[in-house]
Amino acid sequence: MFHSLAGRSVIVTGSSKGIGRGIALRFAQAGCRVLVVSRKLAEAQAVAAEITTAGGDSRAVAADITQQADSEAMAQAAIASFGRIDILCANAGIFPAARLGAMTAADFDSVISTNLRGTFLCMSACLADMKARRSGRIILTSSITGPVTGYPGWAHYGASKAGQLGLMRTAAIELAPYGITVNAVLPGNIATEGLAGLGEDYLRSMESSVPMRRLGSVTDVANAALFFASDEAAYITGQSLVIDGGQILPESLAALQDL
Ligand code: NAP
Prior knowledge:
Blueprint: E1 9-13, H1 18-29, E2 33-38, H2 41-53, E3 57-62, H3 68-82, E4 87-90, H4 105-133, E5 136-141, H5 155-175, E6 180-187, H6 193-196, H7 200-208, H8 218-229, E7 240-243
Parallel strand pairs: 1-2, 1-4, 2-3, 4-5, 5-6, 6-7
């Protein structure tokens, strides 16, 4: 399955580490040409080198997705390197915590600016090329937090991730006539560098709240993104897929006992 992806050009934002890196490596493994994007060039280059060493085709570019000029330069870099943009994985995101009352307007703006406005900027930057070719795949990395669940400290984050789905639904309608689909992956708790930063207590409590009793892997999320990017998913748009080991399912703590 997914042989259709060989040779496709893909931009993955936030792919110097974590879920984005997992998506970049998985798409490269499927034969895609991958533009690795993050603010830190050396870290993006390391992932691109990992792909080329394994026999793949990859370039790296530094871009801050909160900056319109950077997002446009990123799209141009993909066109210059690979001739076109077939797939955008808008994955870059941040998740600092602050409880309401302590959360400042600047905290709120920063999260919305990266996670929601940045998604809009990256998507917008890729549209001219995709529309001209009447073909494209846009895959957003949202989250269970916001669209499905809540967690103390992440009111701004949850709003940004739910907002991505609002953006996705109208984008999916507007872009359908151009053969462009827009879908979202909603990870639960995935073992990444960013998640590790939340501390061992958080990680252990999350593990115990997942029926599968483990955190997700970046490949678990990448496989879902790969499906949305494939020709096999051509008739699916405006949809979201939860990848969480069953985390959102239990009605109460009792539902997890004796498993
Ligand atoms: P991570 O390990 O912290 O990696 C984040 C990536 O985004 C890095 O490559 C970082 O590189 C890049 N980035 C951050 N701000 C950026 C900006 N302004 N411009 C360009 N790149 C930027 O995070 P992660 O855990 O993999 O999360 C990735 C995505 O998945 C996020 O959207 C997050 O909300 C979502 N998610 C994660 C989980 C989870 O459990 N890990 C769960 C649900 C959703 P630089 O710092 O070099 O820019």
